[in-house]
Amino acid sequence: MLRIECPWCGLRNEDEFSYGGDATVERPADDASQDAWYDYVYTRDNPAGRHREYWHHVNGCRAWIVMERNTLSHEIFSVTPASPNLPVSQQRGKKK
Predict the structure, then answer these.
(1) Which among 17, 21, 73, 84 has most CB atoms closer than 10 A?
(2) Residues β-bridged to residue 70
(3) What is the DSSP track for the chain?
(4) d(CA 31, CA 48)
């Protein structure tokens, strides 16, 4: 089982998270060709080795994170927020 360091909640088990997809894929422009949109939605590489992925902390702060890990060994190199803003659940307890 992976142990993932959430930027807001700390070290947590993998079962609190849900895989969200490839973090290296860029959304095409609104006026892009149908082929570009097809590739964006349906075509994915299956990399072996170091890769950036989106993960969602569904059973915690509900934040999205970007995790860089080795898809072969599952070694985690970095975990960063997908957004610089705190999740709403974390903002409630924050003093103004």
Answers:
(1) 17
(2) 50
(3) --EEEETTTEEEEGGG-EEEEETT--PPPTT--HHHHHHHHH-----SSEEEEEEE-TTTT--EEEEEEETTT--EEEEEESSSSPPHHHHTT---
(4) 33
Mean of per-residue pLDDT scores for the chain: 89
What are the beta bridge partners of residue 19? 55
| pLDDT tens-digit readout, 73-95 | 999 999 999 987 765 555 544 44
Q: What is the pTM of this model?
A: 0.81
CA–CA separation, 65 vs 23, rounded Å? 10
Measured in residues, the chain has a length of: 96
Q: Which tokens in the block code for residue 81? A: 């927020």
b/e 2-31 (16+ beta carbons within 10 angstroms → b): eebebbebeebeeebbeebeebeeeeeeee
Q: With left for phi above 0 and alpha for psi between -120 and 50, is residue 49 left, alpha or beta?
A: left
